[in-house]
Amino acid sequence: GYLGLRGAKKRDLCDICFSIGLLVLGVLSLVLAAIGYEALGLAVAPVLGALPPLLMSLGVVYVALPRYWKWYLIFVIVGIVAIAAVRQAVMVFHPVAGLILLALPIYAVVKKVAPPYFSLVSVGALLIGVGGVALATIAAGRPLLPLELVLAILPYVLLGTVVFMGLGALLGRR
Q1: Could you give the dihedral angle defined by the CA atoms of residues 28, 29, 31 and 36, in that order, rounded to the nearest 10 degrees?
Q2: Among 132, 102, 110, 114, residue whose Cα is nearest residue 40
Q3: What is the pTM (predicted TM-score) of this model?
Q4: I need a labelling partner for 51 at 20 to 30 A (CA). Which of 67, 73, 91, 125 fits?
Q5: How far apart are CA 69 and CA 17, in angstroms?
């Protein structure tokens, strides 16, 4: 909503990327709540699941390392195409985007490129990272936590992720 409008008005790539990424994450959360764990097995799940971190990490690179954002945009486009073509490519591109979402907002705050609120993006990344690891270990057949527990807390993890990342993107810009 607001981030997308603000981004379009200011022509700000970070706001636009976060707006689209958070929207897709919200829709995925609703689908997961409606369909359940089986939704993760859908053919479109890898591409849709990779869009939020890839897009939001592009927004973070745009803020934290502005001279590299065009190079990272190429990485994002190649990642989306590769994941659409080969499901296993998600294992290459998704972790890179996740690490960028976790580390670069803190870097941007420390370097005073962004206000302290921008570090809330890292809090959201940490939340979704923990949820993602829990799901990945279940999918690999070596669960860290029982499936029932993961599925019970996943909606709250996703909600927390959206709230923290959204607030970080909204309040963390000058």
Answers
A1: 120
A2: 132
A3: 0.88
A4: 67
A5: 12
Those residues whose C-beta lies under 8 Å from the C-beta of residue 70, and which sit 6 or more positions away, are none
pLDDT per residue of the chain (174 residues) written in tens, 0 to 9: 666 676 677 778 888 898 889 988 888 888 877 887 777 777 788 888 889 999 999 999 999 999 999 999 999 999 999 999 998 898 899 999 999 999 999 999 999 999 999 999 999 999 999 988 888 888 788 888 888 898 888 888 988 999 999 999 988 776
∠ CA 50-168-10, nearest 5°, is 90
CA-based end-to-end distance of the chain:
19
Phi, psi dihedral angles at 86 (to 5 degrees): -135, 110
Instruction: Please count the residues of the chain.
Output: 174
Q: How far apart are alpha carbons 66 and 61 in whole angstroms?
A: 6
- Alpha carbons 103 and 121: distance in angstroms, whole number: 9
Please give the Cα distance from 139 to 91 (Å, whole number): 13
